[in-house]
Specification:
Helix content: under 10%
Distance between the termini: 19 Å
Structural class: mainly beta
Strand order of the largest sheet: 1-8-3-6
Number of strands: 8
Strand content: over 45%
Low-confidence stretches: none
Number of helices: 0
Radius of gyration: 11 Å
Shape: globular
Order of helices and strands: EEEEEEEE
Mean pLDDT: 92
Largest sheet: 4 strands, antiparallel
């Protein structure tokens, strides 16, 4: 199976709820991330103790409340 390819990275501010559509998230620091995943039943999920690095999940929203990764350290990848 081929590795996914990402051609664009978007800054995701964590000081406000941010909506978009990303194929994956990149965390430049450790912490918790609260997201809505693409598809039914994926609202308000919290990934705890993300160690930093690639989180290969399709995301449509990143929440301010519930996300404690420092502003400027989270990227949406497409």
């Amino acid at each position: 199976m081929a590795q996914p390819t990402y051609t664009q990275a978007y800054d995701i501010p964590t000081n406000a709820d941010t909506t978009g559509k990303w194929k994956a998230l990149y965390a430049g620091a450790a912490g918790d991330v609260k997201v809505d995943m693409y598809g039914p039943g994926g609202e308000g999920l919290v990934f705890t103790m993300v160690a930093g690095g690639l989180l290969p999940i399709s995301v449509t929203k990143v929440y301010n409340t519930g996300t404690d990764i420092t502003n400027g350290k989270l990227r949406g990848l497409n």
